[in-house]
Amino acid sequence: MEMTIIVVVISILVIILALVLAASVVTLIGKWKVFEKAGKPGWAAIVPYYNLYVEYELGDFPPLLILLNIGVSIVSFTTGMFNSFSEYYNGFIALSLLFSGILSLASLALTVVQVLVSINIAKKFNKSALYGLGLAFLPFVFYMMLGLDKEAVYTESVK
Questions:
Q1: CB 3.0-4.6 Å disulfide test: which of 30, 100, 118, 156 passes with 147?
Q2: Per-residue pLDDT reduced to its tens digit, 108-133
Q3: Can you tell me the distance from the alpha carbon of 46 to that of 29, in angstroms, rounded to the nearest whole number?
Q4: Residue 80 and residue 155: Cα distance in Å, rounded?
Q5: pTM exceeds 0.90 for this model
């Protein structure tokens, strides 16, 4: 009985992993095509953090916002460290709570920035703000649609 449950759980996890991998590959291909349409190198879609830099450029946001992304990564890592040390030393609990609060606010700010960037990118391809929300929240669908849309042409100015 226990072995059956383990096999079912592992099977479900493998299916989820395959779906996430497929969505990631589809998003990558779509971003590659969108970047090329916008006059940027397509390979930028596969380079971590540089792809965000290019997205910020396309969305008319300061590319230095990438530092906020890197900062969130560092704070996330250190919060995990402080959480693991807090069981040995109670002084780390306060630091862990502080970093968790900072991480939550920074993550919220990054989500808002990503939505605004996506809306600006959509507008530069003569698409609606609703399409931009699709780029932000369902990138594996909307980046591929935008990348393969022959009628979508990139313009520098936002309407």
A1: 30
A2: 888 999 999 999 999 999 999 999 99
A3: 9
A4: 43
A5: no
